[in-house]
């Protein structure tokens, strides 16, 4: 086996696979099949989408059939072309206010034309590959926009719940509410209350029977129950009216002021795109919580998702449907129902088409008050208390509040513009609000800088520093996360001058004792700023003992040209001495805290024992951050195959069940000696401890040798050699072994644990994260934009 593998990896630029001369011909095209999980998931999504689509169409004032058209097109077009396979698209509650305003201003046919133009704009944005740029919008603005839309929906639908007709804006609806309460219709209110009660109580049914019944969507039960109750009671209420499809209104030429139409297109494009892209990212998080699914589905391709949404809006607008976006409720239901591919989304669209054609008599039994109550509940849920707590914790509550009030009072585009302006104002306020104080305590002068240190604060910083007497001991505490070049030069120039005059300067970060200034390097020192935690002694040229004595009677020595310190270099003692002298004073308070509180790491980091792989360096971690397990080849034995060595399994169980880590990372690296040994291993021979351990890597070797599977890639390129290919494949294989452990499988099912793959290229000093787990795996560079997204 090992003789064939290097041949396979010899040409990394090869793009096509060749078959050996005597191998059988490749199999014919596979027959199209739909997994049973996709069928059941599509039914669950369809049962949710049907009443919601009608309710959203009712809330916008559009023809009710427009909601069904948008649901069908969202499933078939966006589901087939989009970049997020498990995201379900259709008429979204977040678009209700925008669409209702367009219909009131321009009429239905022009609104359809605006939807088409918005789809074309999305296609253009997708071709420009700016999808991730849309995620740069502050979450406080996005959540504020959705909350404002939710308030607008809830207030408007409340009038229908009470048996009346909503007004055009929130202020008008609020002013008309007292009169509506005085004239409410008891029959409409009773149907609405029953709908809301079923929505609230159905997911909370207790017992085993409750678990079975909860599989039926609450939205369907609420609308069906209210419809049945209204029919049995003989209540006379306005009901769903679906005219003949032959009379269905299609798109027309846009009519209205050009600037107004442009603003309408931009608003629709913005809301559709941001909601869809945020939904795709949220679906990725849901997929990551299902064992084995991320490797099959892969991460969302946001630019392709934007293209799919654009195509869906073009088709929906052309057929007289509502604007389309990714819908969180249906997408989460799709994932939780067990969907494994985009077939579930597309099949749900087919079911909507069948219902729209064959179930019209049944749909026309639904009271409008029940649909209004359903949509009102969705609007209330869009005002998330969790989001409010999050933005408050990050001190962005003003951005959230201004955006929400702007959307409620003025409109979506105006509210978002106000939110952006508020976010910029908050950022500038944080940038300019810097407090600099000076005080003396026990003979030591303390200069405390609180906030961002920019050129705007340089005059105040200079005044505070000049209050320090010459030759005094000084501590400069920087309590902020940013320092620009002007402030850095001012601080460094003063530090050099003050030190030359006999004073001492210690510059610390947010926590006292965390030094952030660069160390002063002597002429014989080659240390770098990360020296304090690296076992590198800065004592100039090292010496080795030689025969003879010096004139003073001491042992004679001479410089060691190898830099190794010789056999008796006492490296361990020297390193401990350097730690006690330089590093211990800086970390003593943090280690004392950890000693009191115990360890609470957030990650289990499983990597190779290679001496060049420094986990704290490549992860920028410190004491207490990582629970690290190292072995030869970063191997995870399958349960039952340890043969007396349970150390790795014990560490996994302890990390997951006792320490409650939230993620496990398997990290391979370039030039791995264990992978080279695997490739060179021959059957038979002495069963040494190393060979017995490396047998846990044989599944990785077999996986790599399987020619039916694609190669792993590293930042889009093929592996350089067989060792790198095996190292990438081994990371993916060991993740599969991890899932076989009971504690890991249980935590994955509960959604409390994530698994990650990582590869560190020593020569490039570059870390790569596993993004797709097919066969050898797809590893991509870590970028700040990915972390933000």
Q: Report the sheet-strand fraction.
A: 5-15%
* Count of helix runs: 32
Give the overall silhouette.
globular
Biggest sheet: strand arrangement:
10-9-11-13-14-15-12
Regions with little confidence, pLDDT below 50 for 5+ residues: 1-28, 510-557, 560-568, 784-789
Largest sheet: 7 strands, mixed
Radius of gyration, taken over Cα atoms and rounded to an integer in Å? 33 Å
Overall mean pLDDT stands at 81
Number of domains: 3
What percent of the residues sit in helical stretches (DSSP H or I)? 40-55%
Q: Find the structural class using helix and strand composition.
A: alpha/beta
Tally of strands = 15
What is the CA-CA span between the terminal residues?
Answer: 42 Å
How would you characterize this protein structure?
With 789 residues, this protein is of the alpha/beta class. The chain has 3 domains: 36-288 and 299-382, no CATH class; 433-508, STAS domain (Transcription Regulator spoIIAA), CATH 3.30.750; 600-786, Beta-carbonic Anhydrase, Chain A, CATH 3.40.1050. It is 53% helix and 10% strand. Strand 4 (444-450), helix 22 (458-465) and strand 5 (473-479) form a beta-alpha-beta unit. Helix 7 (139-161) runs antiparallel to helix 21, helix 9 packs antiparallel against helix 11 and helix 12 crosses helix 14 (302-318). The chain is globular and about 95 Å long.
